[in-house]
């Protein structure tokens, strides 16, 4: 049975940082930049992406797809250079974190809004903040596509109400530094050194 989020925190489980937002908010671009930044620091970074659409596990007519079509619940395809794990059922973020525990230093997860890990949330409009808060918990940082003046003009947007800083995506250096600092704060002291 997969460990619960709170068990991961207390037992020193794999640190997970989620990048969440609605379609076309820049999640993948931001995830790739933070993965590169952490990898450049010498960390072993794992990543996971939740796809809201159905995707094809493997090319039709390949041997591994035949295994799945004939009843295999999970199929592993491996070669001298790579491995792909295929499963015909959804996998929770906590299960993914458990599978990667001990193999990577941190997991950057794109999506999985309802999972209970620290999050960076991207918004294009102010009303998306409220929508995301209905679906997501533990937002530690908001990244906004709105320019800071437009954002501050909205009376309903008060950073204290959202319990996390709001940064303009146009200030790329601050965005990356803030996320990098957040990610590093999740690591255990032995990994940071």
Automatic annotation (TrEMBL):
GO terms for molecular function: GTP binding. Residues 16-139 form the Molybdopterin-guanine dinucleotide biosynthesis protein B (MobB) domain. Gene3D superfamilies: P-loop containing nucleotide triphosphate hydrolases (3.40.50.300). It comes from Paenibacillus crassostreae. One of its GO terms (biological process) is Mo-molybdopterin cofactor biosynthetic process. It comes from the Bacteria. InterPro entries: MGD_biosynthesis_adapter, MobB_dom, P-loop_NTPase. This is Molybdopterin-guanine dinucleotide biosynthesis protein B (MobB) domain-containing protein.
């Amino acid at each position: 049975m997969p460990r619960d989020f709170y068990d991961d925190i207390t037992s020193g489980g794999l640190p997970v940082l989620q990048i969440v937002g609605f379609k076309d908010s820049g999640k993948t671009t931001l995830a790739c930049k933070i993965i590169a930044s952490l990898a450049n620091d010498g960390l072993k970074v794992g990543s996971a992406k939740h796809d809201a659409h159905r995707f094809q596990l493997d090319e039709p007519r390949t041997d591994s797809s035949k295994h799945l079509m004939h009843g295999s619940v999970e199929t592993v395809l491996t070669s001298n250079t790579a491995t792909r794990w295929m499963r015909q059922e959804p996998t929770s973020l906590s299960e993914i974190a458990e599978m990667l525990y001990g193999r990577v230093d941190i997991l950057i997860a794109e999506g999985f809004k309802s999972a209970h890990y620290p999050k960076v949330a991207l918004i294009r409009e102010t009303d998306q903040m409220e929508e995301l808060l209905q679906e997501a918990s533990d937002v530690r940082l908001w990244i906004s596509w709105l320019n800071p003046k437009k954002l501050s003009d909205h009376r309903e947007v008060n950073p204290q109400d959202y319990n996390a800083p709001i940064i303009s995506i146009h200030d790329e250096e601050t965005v990356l530094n803030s996320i990098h600092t957040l990610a590093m704060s999740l690591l255990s002291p032995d990994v940071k050194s």
